[in-house]
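hey can u check if this looks right to u? its 438 residues, i copy pasted from the old doc so theres a chance i mangled smth
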Amino acid sequence: MRKKIFLILFIGIGVFTVVTTSELVIFFKRERSRLIDQQVEVLASSLLASGVFESRFETVQNEVSKALGTREMVTFLSVYDRNLNLRFRNPNAQILFGTNIIEPVDKWMTSQAGDHRIRLLNLRTNGGERWIQVGMLIDQENAEWDSIAARAFIIAAVLLIGVAIASYFISRALLMPLSELAVDLRNFSRDLEERKTPEEIFSKWSQKSKDRDAYAELISSLVELRTRLVGRLKMNDATLSQMAHELKTPLAVIRAGTESLLIEVKDDDIKAHLNELLQEADRLSETITSFLNWSRFQQTEFANLEKQQILLGECVRDMAATLEHVYPERINVEVEGNFVLMANRPHVEQIIRNLLSNALKYSKNAVHVKLKGSAFSVLDTGPGIPEKVLKRLGEPFNSSASGTGLGLAWVKTLCDRNMWSISVSSSDTGTSVEVIFV
């Protein structure tokens, strides 16, 4: 973002400076040319008004000198008859043009004489018997304006360098609060990992913000937000606990009554239905317990959980062996290496067990388990996971099958809290889930 702001400021102000400088140079140059033309026209009008061309040509020079005074030093004057025969030329024009005829093609002309350029005005006398050419030297003016233009662009280049420096410091000043906030947020995250409580962290951050007005309101808002969120989470936890109690009490009553009926009933069909009722009651009770545990884990201070050294290869084999008793000859295990992982062992075991259980539950064929280094993957040949379920991966009760989706919710939550990556690839021919424990 800082580079973008710098480039926007530099390019915007730079283009404005270059365009403005160019326009000013062109404007003043045109304006100077217009003033030269105006001066030439005034000189010509002055000569015509003086009537010098009505006298004999031998006396024209004296009359011109009287009419122009000091302006004669920069004036070029030629007089032709109607047949364009040169009848008179003042000393300035003689030096530049000699006896060359400059045919009056247009009213205004720019003529080249050696290395000099002359601006000429062609006029007829009142009687139409003569052509007069009045001019002024403009090459010196152009040279001066070329020098002025060069100096102007040098100044513009210096201004651009100044704009670059100013843009750098402006962009830095604008984004400094955001940069410092990013650093503080990283420190905040690191403090959480170091088992510091949110109260300690926010207390330190609030103290830090007292000397920085830009942070005062932000920190105050974050502290208030955190307080509200904690209060809301505690209220939700209390509500969930109460709800679980309210649900489990009637479930316990139902289970006790069903077990009593099983003892008294003799009919086999009725006993089969009562057993199904017991299984559903147990499944519902297990779902409630699992959801409550998942919900409470979301609010657990993760840094306070115990971590230990785990041999990942052995852990995978142990979990596969445990499930092998329930699903015999359906698990193919391939382990390369025995990666050492520092983590909470029940969390790692729950990830492996949940992924294996899901694959075995929704697939009738063999399930392939592979561990290579820190990468653990499970591949099944089941019907796959629908796209709408994949988009909400990790949410409880997000399942298109008969399950609750809590198994994957646990896996996703544990991976996120431990900062392990998880990827799921699924189609109608099977599902592959990979967790990288790093």
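The chain is about 60% helix and 15% strand.
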